[in-house]
Amino acid sequence: MNQTVAPTIPLVDLKAQYRSIKPEIDRAVAGVVEAQYFVLGPAVERFEKEFAAYNGVAHCVGLESGTGAVWLMLQALGVKAGDEVITTPLTFFATVEGILLCGATPVFADVDPRTLNLDPARAAAAVTKRTKAILPVHLYGQPARMDELRALAESRGLILLEDAAQSAGSLYRGRKAGSLGRAAAVSFYPGKNLGAYGDAGAVLTDDANLAQTLRMLRDHGGRRKNSHEILGLNARMDAVQGAVLSAKLPHLDAWNTARRGHAEAYRKALAGAPGLSFVEELPECRSNYHLFVARHARRDELLAQLREQGV
Ligand SMILES: Cc1ncc(COP(=O)(O)O)c(C=O)c1O
């Protein structure tokens, strides 16, 4: 038999990442099992402190998912029926879901074709009397043009937020994505650059009152057990996720640097390939390359060919 099997190249190889830090992960998970403290508690508190410090913000509130983070961030800021939130039409559904779950209306402003991120000029054109907030997404890891969006928000009295679900460790003018607005929603879905071992998310903010409201919302609306001051729900981060994320956080910058190296290699190797173009990286941005995105005039054919070859 002389059959060759094409190697399979996955989008992301989480098993390889696990093997590279196995003792640290195993120790972290075993620590939670030993402690038998499974929801919030010391492991989550430790990660919240570490991730807040990493991002240069005062507060990190650990939640059950990035979807919950988008929704509860808006909810905690009082976004409600009758309010409009300007966002990008090119994002994962959860960005819009969070707005809709508050009863508010998402208003789409188109993207800059170079970066595929929310275009500040189009966002400005979408402002109405009902606009309450602007929610850009740092898509594929590249921060949106936050200076222009901040100037817009300040001039019109709007809240500037971030959907930083894809941008852990990315930089904008030297500052972390996730520290650039009033608050940021983060996802630790396993495939993210900083991925948990299950669902998890967080909100980052410098606003102590907002952080306190989020801590109440995530835990049935109270500060203590069996006290329910506002209407909340169960949206708490579990301790295994906190422990795994603490074990992984020290590696995030090196992993992101490796991804940037891979992106550079793709750009060089594929430069001038007919019909192919890439998302541009702006000079003020340092993307974590959550995804390296290419566009092609005959996308579906290219995709089929790659799939045939195991990519
Ligand atoms: C831009 C964006 N927002 C929100 C989310 C929601 O995060 P999660 O999957 O953790 O609920 C994601 C995750 O895929 C995302 O990519």
CATH class of the largest domain: Alpha Beta
Q: Total domains, how many?
A: 2
CATH topology of the largest domain: Aspartate Aminotransferase, domain 2
Roughly what is the average pLDDT, rounded to an integer? 96
The name of the CATH superfamily of the largest domain reads Type I PLP-dependent aspartate aminotransferase-like (Major domain)
Percent range of helical residues: 25-40%
Radius of gyration: 20 Å
* CATH structural architecture of the largest domain: 3-Layer(aba) Sandwich
| SSE string, helices as H and strands as E | HHHEHEHEHEHEEEEEHHHEEEH
Main pleated sheet? 7 strands, mixed
Contiguous runs where pLDDT drops below 50 for at least 5 residues: none
Beta-strand content estimate: 5-15%
Task: Outline the fold blueprint.
Blueprint: H1 14-20, H2 22-35, H3 41-55, E1 59-63, H4 66-76, E2 84-87, H5 94-101, E3 105-108, H6 120-125, E4 131-135, H7 146-156, E5 159-163, E6 171-172, E7 175-176, E8 183-187, E9 201-205, H8 208-217, H9 239-248, H10 252-270, E10 276-278, E11 285-286, E12 294-296, H11 299-308
The structure holds pyridoxal-5'-phosphate (PLP).
